Amino acid sequence: MGSLPPPSGIQTIDISPLINSKDPVARKAKIDELVAAIHIQGACGLVGHGIKIDRLREAFKWAQKFFDLPYEEKAKANHPNGIVPHRGYSGIGREKCLIYTEEELKSMSGELAANARKALDFKEHYDTGSDGELVHYNLWIDEHALPGFRTWAQGFYWEMEKLSRTVLQAMIDGLGVDEEAKKDFMSIHTGHQNGLRLMHYPSAHESTIDRSSLTWCPTHTDFTTYTLLMQDENQGLEIEDRLNPGTFLPATTEVEDRMYLTIGDFGEIWSNGYLPASKHRVIIPRAADGSEVTPKRYSMPYFITPAEDGICGPQYTGKLASGPRGKYKTSTIKEHVEFRMKFQY
Ligand SMILES: O=C(O)CCC(=O)C(=O)O
Ligand SMILES: [Fe+2]
């Protein structure tokens, strides 16, 4: 019998042995399964990650409460202009560049006005990082506008950081690169440069949507090492099927606490392409039968990003030795982030 074709689709991996087992055999098997899955698709689903369903539900409640605030409150934490790491509130239309008046954007930052027909990146979001990050500081809304929000956001950030470090270590161990490269790459992931993003994709009247030009979020890769994505029950996220390039697979929502892991640019560069960056997009779902209004959606990406003065370049040891030489260039994290940000804000 010849070798089997690679498993199709986006696989879901139960990583509980990485969270709560000390058995080296079980851990190694899980690491190999994880690396094999993301080698093929640049993405996988994760369950058994140790973040409790109640904690995730609580997080989505905070996100909803945040976006329900009046525009003026959210705008007190407005994302700064220019090339800076993601921090603060970005209202609808902010992250991609279609021209609206201030008034139009304000009125759309709840539900889209029925008569709004211009195309745009149809989402609002709020970015936070570590309060201990020394160069880039968080932008918070007033405490009295949403008491407890800041404390929750920092607590959740660090809970996700712990999980993300476990997964990062597993991915790196599974690549079999030499010890020095491993140590270097882990050391530039200090935990303080990650990002917790709350996202709200509003609903809209079906008749106002021109699907040829309007999406919730167009196809992109993340400029991260990798990203952990949490989403509510509403569909929208699609991940490119690398076995059928140009086609997309829905990141389905029927498992409430499944997260999706997507490799970002730094993961691809450092692994010399062995873990490819996942192209993904978020499409606006159709309105349910009998309804004129498309569903809204909340999601929460947690971006795992190295320190900006860190250096990322391709490694050629272990499993990465078989990859091409010279395809990826070595640069500081800052250079690459600035290059990507130029096209976003
Ligand atoms: O909302 C989602 O499911 C994905 C968001 C995303 O891809 C991003 O913010 O980079
Ligand atoms: Fe993304």
UniProtKB/TrEMBL annotation:
<protein>
    <submittedName>
        <fullName>Uncharacterized protein</fullName>
    </submittedName>
</protein>
